[in-house]
Amino acid sequence: MAMTRVRIEGLPHQASKGELVRWLAETAQVSGSRVGRIERSGNAATVELPEHEVGRLLSKLDGAMFQTRRVRVRLDAGGSELRNSHARGGEDWFAQLRQWLEWEAEAEREQIESQSSAREGTSLRNLAIRSDDVGLGGRLLLSLGKPDPHKPLPPHAFQPGSPVLLRVDSADAPPGIRGIIAQRTPAALTVAVDVPEDGLPDGDRWRLDLAYDEVARQRQLAALDRARLARAERLAELREVLLGEREPVVGPEPEVVFFNTGLNPSQQAAVKQALAAKDVAIVHGPPGTGKTTVLVEIIRQAVARGESVLACAPSNLAVDHLLESVIRKGIAAVRLGHPARVSPELHDSTLDELAQHHPDRVQARKLVRQAFALLKQAGKWTRAKPQPGERAAMRQEARQLLGDARALERRAIERILDGAKLIGATLTGVDADTMGQRVFDWVILDEACQATEPACWIPILRAKKVVLGGDHCQLPPTVLSDAASKAGLIVSMMERLVDRFGPLITRRLNIQYRMNQAIMQFSAQEFYDGDLHADASVAEHRLVDLPAVAADAMTEMPVRFLDTAGASFEEEPEPDGPSRRNPQEARQIVAQVRALIDHGVPAGEIAVIAPYNAQVRLLREQLRDIDGLEVDSVDGFQGREKEAVLVTLVRSNSEGEIGFLGDIRRTNVAMTRARRRLFLIGDSATLAQHPFYQRMVEYLESIGAYGSIWEEMA
């Protein structure tokens, strides 16, 4: 019988091999005769199990309870015989995704190492533990600062949510403990860590180092294995559809009573498509078309039917935006994830806050404190040598207390989640520790085109039906590895499915409520087959229509392109980095911003966008005196809008090199953030080497929006 190795994590330290065998039999009906070698190490075990049953076993075991703990179960990294044993059910595709993830992890490690070598504040040393507290999941919250509490921390790169490695600051220190930054103040960082069963290592001084996100990567790898190995279950059926091996099933269009009676026909069609779909539906939302409005309506329809919904997105910001929109409609939600990463408006909806005052959680905190006190006492003997076995007894008692606390906390969490019809989390924030083996009637993935495919599979494991919302004509996923990007990791699952199934599962929204039609029209032609239209409420609106804004060409014209060709507005490399900037373009942008403000446009309604971070930094410095003005990269403005947007395209050189402006989706984002006024500045002689920018210049000329820098300098 062919065997493969499975890794089980999160076990009690004292769990025996016999208890493991009994648990496998009770939980997954695996008889002892079918269990091979078992290797124990700390709170993990590696178990040999029948290869032909691994898909079923992963589904049964991952997120199941072992005594008082939820365990995580995945293929062992060292036991990959199964991965290359045969090519069925999309195994070649999943093997590719795994390889790309490995390349991406390596690129992330290299980035952190290069930051460290550049002394960019990725390490803090000589830290003292100021205080400790207990967080959700029995995690220890450690406040770390300088030994002198009056001294602030030096400049550093640690932010709430940053993965870190905590260790004793000495040459012979034991291995570090992984954690997450929970809070940042000028004088201290609070770190959430899972405490080893024997307590923290002894040490008076500690160090923190930024770490790459190993937890997120492991969850993605585990999800790919689960999806690949699924057999004779709903996940296997969904996998066949999502890999394009079987056509999705779409039922008849339902009769729908809409909660939102203001939906336009394309929005209504998207809601009906999602309700009719049996496997997967896609809401394609070009800029300003109300994609979130559609997803909110879908969620309201599902909840009204008594169905459960898991709403996810690749970023905390996107998850929060969707959940806030739903909660405003009167639907309660539970937000998973660290409170430090969640918007203040959702604080009361976080699992941490909901569990905070539950009686079981209050009692669990008391037990955890007692356990920590015992572990500290067992590690420090200052008066006399302990009696034989005394330390071991204390540690055993502490383990028992921690086990009891986990059981109480688990009960509190289960009751909260059992009562929730809508749960929200980032893609990689969906974990078995919290969610157990829950399956949802709907899994909704917002901003799906900004998510890499491996991350999407994490929530899909729990889906009966999947809805993806996004726009593959805007920003793709962020991928650090050039090799992984070129190989295909930059192509999102949604983009792949739109290409494969098209209108069978996709509904594109075609009325936008943001842009003056002159701002919209070029993107409509280039990216949306001409089928994007301005609602009458915005089609002709201009800056001059705003209160207290003076009338002249600047406020009456919705679009203006200032061509710098021939004026020697050359780009240059940033002095201390690889990014690029254009000082002459920056000066023109500064003048335009100040002119808009002089005309009465509020600074808070103006944004400056640059494709290069060096240009962003230069402009922020030159405009730092203007409160409320936003200057950011293209990535920073995805999904955002302002009344007036100024875009500096930066590239100007004799070689016609335009760098990543060649990814025209980035320019689509930049050009579609403005409501009433879009100002662009760039060198047509450089840009128009690319056909897209040649067509852009021709369009701007056709609507009378073209101007030369020579006219400005005359």
UniProtKB/TrEMBL annotation:
<dbReference type="GO" id="GO:0043139">
    <property type="term" value="F:5'-3' DNA helicase activity"/>
</dbReference>
<dbReference type="InterPro" id="IPR012677">
    <property type="entry name" value="Nucleotide-bd_a/b_plait_sf"/>
</dbReference>
<dbReference type="GO" id="GO:0003677">
    <property type="term" value="F:DNA binding"/>
</dbReference>
<dbReference type="InterPro" id="IPR047187">
    <property type="entry name" value="SF1_C_Upf1"/>
</dbReference>
<dbReference type="GO" id="GO:0005694">
    <property type="term" value="C:chromosome"/>
</dbReference>
<dbReference type="GO" id="GO:0005524">
    <property type="term" value="F:ATP binding"/>
</dbReference>
<comment type="similarity">
    <text>Belongs to the DNA2/NAM7 helicase family.</text>
</comment>
<dbReference type="InterPro" id="IPR048761">
    <property type="entry name" value="SMUBP-2_HCS1_1B"/>
</dbReference>
<protein>
    <recommendedName>
        <fullName>DNA helicase</fullName>
        <ecNumber>3.6.4.12</ecNumber>
    </recommendedName>
</protein>
<dbReference type="InterPro" id="IPR041677">
    <property type="entry name" value="DNA2/NAM7_AAA_11"/>
</dbReference>
<feature type="domain" description="DNA2/NAM7 helicase-like C-terminal">
    <location>
        <begin position="491"/>
        <end position="684"/>
    </location>
</feature>
<dbReference type="GO" id="GO:0005737">
    <property type="term" value="C:cytoplasm"/>
</dbReference>
<feature type="domain" description="Helicase SMUBP-2/HCS1 1B">
    <location>
        <begin position="104"/>
        <end position="199"/>
    </location>
</feature>
<keyword id="KW-0347">Helicase</keyword>
<feature type="domain" description="DNA2/NAM7 helicase helicase">
    <location>
        <begin position="263"/>
        <end position="481"/>
    </location>
</feature>
<keyword id="KW-0963">Cytoplasm</keyword>
<dbReference type="Pfam" id="PF03880">
    <property type="entry name" value="DbpA"/>
</dbReference>
<dbReference type="GO" id="GO:0003723">
    <property type="term" value="F:RNA binding"/>
</dbReference>
<feature type="domain" description="DEAD box helicase DbpA/CsdA RNA-binding">
    <location>
        <begin position="13"/>
        <end position="74"/>
    </location>
</feature>
<keyword id="KW-0378">Hydrolase</keyword>
<dbReference type="Pfam" id="PF13087">
    <property type="entry name" value="AAA_12"/>
</dbReference>
<dbReference type="GO" id="GO:0016787">
    <property type="term" value="F:hydrolase activity"/>
</dbReference>
<dbReference type="InterPro" id="IPR005580">
    <property type="entry name" value="DbpA/CsdA_RNA-bd_dom"/>
</dbReference>
<keyword id="KW-0547">Nucleotide-binding</keyword>
<dbReference type="InterPro" id="IPR050534">
    <property type="entry name" value="Coronavir_polyprotein_1ab"/>
</dbReference>
<dbReference type="Pfam" id="PF21138">
    <property type="entry name" value="SMUBP-2_HCS1_1B"/>
</dbReference>
<keyword id="KW-0238">DNA-binding</keyword>
<keyword id="KW-0067">ATP-binding</keyword>
<dbReference type="InterPro" id="IPR027417">
    <property type="entry name" value="P-loop_NTPase"/>
</dbReference>
<dbReference type="InterPro" id="IPR041679">
    <property type="entry name" value="DNA2/NAM7-like_C"/>
</dbReference>
<dbReference type="Pfam" id="PF13086">
    <property type="entry name" value="AAA_11"/>
</dbReference>
